[in-house]
Prior knowledge:
The chain has one domain (26-89): Nuclear Transport Factor 2, Chain: A (Roll), CATH 3.10.450.50. Helices cover 24% and strands 44% of the residues. It has two helices and five strands; from the N terminus they run αβββββα. The chain has helices at 5-18, 82-89, and strands at residues 26-31, 35-36, 42-51, 57-70, 73-80. A hairpin with a 2-residue loop joins β4 and β5 (73-80). The longest helix is centred in the first third of the chain and has 14 residues, at 5-18.
Amino acid sequence: MAGRPDQDARQGCRPRLLGTAGSRVRTHDEPSEPIELDDGRIAVHIDQTIRTPAGSPVSDGRFIHVYQIRDGLAARLDIESPTMSDAEHG
């Protein structure tokens, strides 16, 4: 029996996330206050730092998580770049 397509895609990303030698990284996400958008979605700016297990920085990034809420639950999550989102959301 074949797996779900999205499950297969996630498994394909696993080696890239772990690195070629199976090393792991640590991430730290620092969210801002949620902002309700005009269309009812909620945007949260995220500052993310990725470090090696020893604590050396690998990368820093900024993202925006945009949630669509339905019946009190997150029905959809889009991850956007700040430049795309700033132009789209003002």
